Amino acid sequence: MSAQVEVVVAERGVDVAFDVADGETVALLGPNGAGKSTTLAVLGGLLRPDAGRVLLDGEELTGPGRWVAPHARRTALLAQDPLLFPHLSVLENVAFGPRSTGSGRRAARTAAGHWLGEVDAAELAGRRPAQLSGGQAQRVAVARALAAEPRLLLLDEPMAALDVAVAPALRALLRRVLADRTTVIVTHHVLDALLLADRVVVLDGGRVVEQGATADVLSRPRSGFAARFAGLNLVAGTATPDGVRRPDGLLLHGTPGDPPPVDGADAVAVFRPSAVAVHAQPPGGSPRNVLPVVVTELEPLGDLVRVRAGELAADVTMASVAELGLAPGAAVTFVVKATEVEVYAR
């Protein structure tokens, strides 16, 4: 099933459009308030947009003078909270999906048993939701969503409420069951995008600011949010023969990407925080990019510390933090070699 999505919700400042190919998983990324959950609500029929259309395999679900009720869309929404019926057993919870689409009790229970097996939860069939752990409940919720045989599966941060020890198992499960299933997932976790999504659509301020194949967007981001999401630095400006010139005039030297940006066109320079050295004073020596910054935040990363300075970041050792006296408000210099910087058209 393919989907074409146009969503306009004026009150929330949302105006986005994108497509989902048959059997494709698309991840919606963006900061809080970007319009991700609003878009998902329109797809599921939980919110009427002010304008736009939602087509699923050519059938108009939302459009001028057309509105298909949520239960008639054959879409399934899996949220952070499993939302299992507390008075029903696990088996009956999962059987609810096929029952709601017209299956008889026996057929529904057979389908429920099948999907519980698919999510490695067959042994939970007789339990009530109160007897399940968070990870178990979310597995059952996945089975219930899939048992309804939805034409479009909607996932709204399904692992956000799970313990970090449980999330990897559910992520592996979703990677297996989402294969060849048309899906839209909202996530704030880079691993979800990398492991589950074929493409990503980046929203910011209610608009699509970037989209493309997951690996391409996360390795060569064109938007600030995508760069931060991927753990990369991004400097926007104008392409020059040597790199990117920021609006304040500072030139960041780098290596042109493929295809190289046209001189004078909008461009971005991308580099890893691990490629950045932090100095108390601007260094001399070989040609390097020297960026005067003010530290805004220190973020522990295991044996390293991520030093944030506004939109830029550098990864340094604990010893360097102490030696340089790094703290919010400290004026330092970020230095990165030109060979570590890649330049792309924006």
TrEMBL record:
Coiled coil among keywords: no
Protein name as it appears in the record: Molybdate transport system ATP-binding protein
Protein's UniProt keywords contain ATP-binding: yes
GO molecular function, one term: ATP binding
Organism: Nocardioides kongjuensis
SMART domains named in the record: AAA (SM00382)
Limits of the ABC transporter domain: 3-230
Cited SUPFAM superfamilies: MOP-like (SSF50331), P-loop containing nucleoside triphosphate hydrolases (SSF52540)
Any single biological process term in GO: molybdate ion transport
